[in-house]
Amino acid sequence: MTTEQPEARIHYTLDGSEPTAQSPLYTEPIRLGPAKNTTCVVVKARAVAGDRTSAASVHSYFFDPHIAARFSSYVFSLSTNPDNLYGHERGILVPGRLRALSEAQHPYLDATAHNANYKGRGREWERPVAVEVFSPEGTRILEQAAGLRVFGGVSRHALQKSLRLIARKSYEKGHGKFDYPFFPELALPTAPRPMLAFDGLVLSNGGQDLEDAQLRTPLLTRLAAKAGYLWVAPSHSAAVFLNGAYYGHAFLTTRVDDSFLADALHVSKGDITVLDGGVRELRSSPKYPHLLHLREITDFRRLAEACADRPMDAALLTAVARQVDVDNLLSYYVAEIYVDNRDWPDDQNNVRVWRYSGDTTLPLPELDGRWRYVLYDLDATAMSLWHGMQGADAPSLARVMKKSPIFAALLTRPELAAQFANNLCDMAFAHFTPDKVRAAMAALDAVSLKEIRYAAAHGAYSPPGLGQKIMAGRQNILRFFEERPAHMLHELRETFGYTELYEVSVQGRARCGTIAGENPVGWYFVENPVIVAPLLTPTVAFDHWEVNGVVRRGPTLAVSAQDAVDGRVRVVLATRPHPVPFALEEAYDQGALCGFTLRNVSDAPQSADGLYLSDRLDKPRKYRLKDLTLQPGEFAQFVGKGHRHAKALLRRNVNFNPRKGETVYLRDAAGNILSSIPVR
Fold this sequence. Notes:
Layout: E1 9-13, E2 39-49, E3 52-53, E4 57-63, H1 67-70, E5 74-79, H2 82-86, H3 96-105, E6 127-134, E7 140-151, E8 162-166, E9 200-204, H4 216-226, E10 235-242, E11 245-253, H5 258-265, E12 272-277, E13 282-283, H6 294-309, H7 314-323, H8 326-338, E14 352-356, E15 372-373, H9 397-403, H10 405-410, H11 414-431, H12 434-458, H13 466-496, E16 501-507, E17 509-512, E18 515-518, E19 521-525, E20 530-534, E21 540-547, E22 550-552, E23 557-559, E24 568-577, E25 582-589, E26 594-600, E27 606-607, E28 612-614, E29 623-624, E30 629-630, E31 635-639, E32 652-653, E33 663-667, E34 673-678
Parallel strand pairs: 5-10, 16-24, 31-32
Antiparallel strand pairs: 1-2, 2-3, 2-4, 5-6, 6-7, 7-8, 8-9, 9-11, 10-11, 12-13, 12-14, 14-15, 16-19, 17-18, 17-20, 20-23, 21-22, 21-24, 25-26, 26-31, 27-30, 28-29, 28-33, 33-34
């Protein structure tokens, strides 16, 4: 280690603590070496010259006889003063002072009922931490000071805790987010809500699935996301080291909170409200005080009471739809019921809703001010050991309807019961089929199973036989989804009197019920029609449908068993070319001047009003075009934010500066990319 100040002395630590003038003095190279298993050594160093000190430099070094092949996941090295983790007064991972006080005051309580340091919440129980993240190949992809808390509910009692990392500018100036695309599914241009940076991250110990399959929540939320459910957290995998000690495997995720939602929707965090509850009532919290949200809480409670006491007539349905996104509610209940969540529904546990309360001109339906449900914590599902390995034949719908007045009342409307049943049929025949479950499991295993097995064999907190429990739990998941369709269809028949099924197959890129993609196929009860709609790219326009050879007009199509021939409805989508009329050209960054050109490449005048320009994949609506019509071949020149260069005269200023290596995007109101060009 070196310093540019010849009079400075370098002091260092190897235990995670912050180096001071009293720490060991660096006088010669430090000899680091491997231990029995994978070893991590965290070196923190600081230059001291008189009363001046430098910022601490942090770097973790890993040793393993097979280090090149050791990891398949991200590697997180977290370091802080040991007292922040294990100290009696301040340690957040130990029972500590709060346990001692609780035992003295309430000696009769069960151990898990006592208070403890690791149950602490809020900023009081947040500790500073140095975060380093490495790729499986060993490249350091992030190094940042942040905050560290224990995360979760019941899982806090486990020896290995779930950990929450919080980015704040108060820890490191200019770093209010973890600026790295940790989740590939959110970093694609085709992602519904691209996200490349995060206010917080969670290293989940697996919760109630910790000593079972260690898979359920990331697996099932990933399947739900693929099925089109937007309000779920992404997931990846991580090996975790604390102050150099191996802590175990964790699933990397993030909270679907106001920060996440604001970033996803490109609105102010202050205009997002996230409340627990959503079955019979909504619950306030320190972040969302009761008095400030009294009207929302009262209105929802009255709505639930009305649904419990009155028939679901048109007026009550209108009242429900005014407060709650009914389509979202039905999709949410379908997902929870199909996976048989036994730790739900309960306003005190695992139910969360959000709404937008601001003003906006953005064309997003989610900004209509209604409540929508977050799908999270699916640990106690799919034959979970936590709830006694309830089989796939366990009744779910009747149990949930008894607890959920709004949901139960909605299902008394035949058209909503049909929508719910169609969605559930899509789960059984398309979204959660055994093949889809195996494929999603394999994708997660590719980045996590190696570390899960290593942790089970070598982790200090892993009980004997954990590896066998994990594999047995995964077999139970597969068994559950092999058997689940027959039992869910039986329950639908028993509840609503449905009878036989018919098939709907679509040729073309379309949505059939909730099944979206190329050539979707679904099965539905003959009593229920299903909606089919085209999924069009910007270069394709709708022309007509053919239903068993009969032409139908109009993009939204309702088909039913009456259209079936031998139990099948065959739908063909006919389209016609619709070229994009605009193209981005000549994107440049010359330092003092940057910009690009937008050209009308069609043979007719074209208005660009309502289109959007951006230089960020995760911020698609940075600049809204207005009052711009281009003749065939005509172009408009744009320059970056605040440019006063002479060449910028008579060019339009956008509110961003395209830089070399970035990409400029042109999008429509729905977020589809119409054109893009790299900046040179």
